[in-house]
Amino acid sequence: MRLSLPINTLINLPKPRFLISPSSRYLNPNRSPTLAFRASSLRRAPVVSPRLCCCCYWFSTEAMMTNVGEQSIPSSVELKENIELTEKERKIFDRLLSTLRYCNLDTQLRVAGGWVRDKLLGKESDDIDIAIDNMSGSEFLDKFKEYLSSRDEEVQGDTVIERNPDQSKHLETAKMRIYDQWIDFVNLRSEEYTENSRIPTMKFGTAKEDAYRRDLTINSLFYNLNSGLVEDLTERGIDDLKSGKIVTPLPAKATFLDDPLRVLRAIRFGARFGFTLDEELKEAASCEEVRVALGEKISRERIGNEIDLMISGNGPVSAVTYLSELKLFRLVFALPSSADPSPSENCGSLSQAYLEAMWRLLQTPGLGNFSGEQRRLALYAAMFLPFRKTVYKDNKGKSIPVVNHIFKFSMKRKTSDAETVMNIHQTAERFRPLVCPLEAKNDVGLEKLDWATVILEHWKTISHNDAEVPATSKIRVLTGFLLRDIKDFWRVALLTSLLLSATVDDQEIGHLNFQLEKMRETYLTVEATIHELGLDNIWDVKPLVNGREIMQIAELKGGSLIREWQQKLLTWQLANPNGTSEECKDWMREVKAKRQRTE
């Protein structure tokens, strides 16, 4: 029986056993493993952030540049010399090792991948994946349950996710909830391919073989629970982490054809950490064979999950830049063939430009606190601005916005995401003519608005010969209706509207000029005006007259006239912010009486 070492809260990593020659690009997985590495405080050279040249856009941001932008690229990457376990991690690992002792198992347990990487970078992680050397994950779960039963303890929860080779899910994964945290359990594996198939034959493998089958070298590190050591079995994971490189353990093209989703994962991790993508990796990612495999082998839901993680992360601009640069933008955000008008060749570059402008605005100090959900959908809304007027025909011949198609079919996101982004686009267009009047606090230029023709007619009826109506009533009414539609996403819609003012002259060649400091000032002025008008949370304000009272006063039994009266009364309420319910009802009776006399 192999005895395990006790796990302490602080675990020292021993010094490297030997050095690796930088010229050694791919190492033979069958070579003897290098087990223990110590991560010292090492520095990396500065990395140039990827930029796209086919779209011209300018950011006038002198006053903002020191405070905003994506995660700055560090001049060095410092790795922790020690892996520091949290109390919960220590308890989880003690439980797992106790199972080995109780069941008398000659088994090695290793934490694989991202948890090890993040711990060495000094970041906390709750993504614990356990790799097992001589049994499957489900078999180990049975042993763990046996151990819990011996202590009269119940399982908090467990499940087994079956393998699905057709979608590049080659491995069964067992999951168990331990101390209120879900832990994944899989066996170490190696993969063999037949000459005419890209679906591998799975079998138990060594830790070294498993490490070489991982997506990236920085994700191929193990933390051995039995020995308390970090294992770098590709013999370059630590070096690539120190130097900030995104590299595959095996040749990139073979790695991507094995699981094409790894292309998107490479981009996501590169953007997340500000690391550079290896040149061979970029060449493989952009090749036709890999792009076809990504489109055909990977479910749209898994693609959408990766994109969501990119947009929600701290490097969305870099991620989308890579997607465009590697010719993956149109594949990921696939549009129907009937899209009208047909997107321009540089749509990816335009999307990146809008995205970067929105990202910089959102990062500006003093611009308000946006929730994670508002930030995520704001970035999607900016990125898809070039498609806001593009539609396609569905099976019934109905014109549908392509943004809806991207969310529901290309990325398999929830319907509410599509609806919110389309609503942001629509509200942004309606916001544009209101921005200058809100800045100037007057109603100039608001005589005619296509989306508010009926509202303006109601306002004229209310304001005619009525000295009680405030001078700012028209702008208050129009803005109030707008905010009641978009609700707490109105600030996102306002920012999106300001981005639309950046388009100049010839959009076909992507000439965009973003004066971000001016946009920031405009946003803050408009936001302050909306606050002065008392329109904060206007969507939560209840009508002064409810539907039952409308039916009684207007002597209606139902029908479209109720909706018409509701809109008129809301217009009155917005035009008279200090008006009471009785005053609103009196006005309604007057209007009704005038109508009856006219008839």
Automatic annotation (TrEMBL):
Listed SUPFAM superfamilies: Nucleotidyltransferase, Poly A polymerase C-terminal region-like
Q: Which UniProt keywords apply?
A: RNA-binding, Transferase
Q: Is-annotated flag, keyword Zinc-finger? A: no
**Family annotation (CDD domains):** NT_ClassII-CCAase
Pfam families (alphabetical)? PolyA_pol
InterPro entries for the chain: NT_sf, PolA_pol_head_dom
What positions does the domain Poly A polymerase head occupy? 109-246
List the PANTHER family hit by this protein, alphabetically: CCA TRNA NUCLEOTIDYLTRANSFERASE, MITOCHONDRIAL, TRNA-NUCLEOTIDYLTRANSFERASE
This protein's name: CCA tRNA nucleotidyltransferase 2
Lineage, broadest ranks: Eukaryota, Viridiplantae, Streptophyta, Embryophyta, Tracheophyta
Gene of origin?
LOC104756613
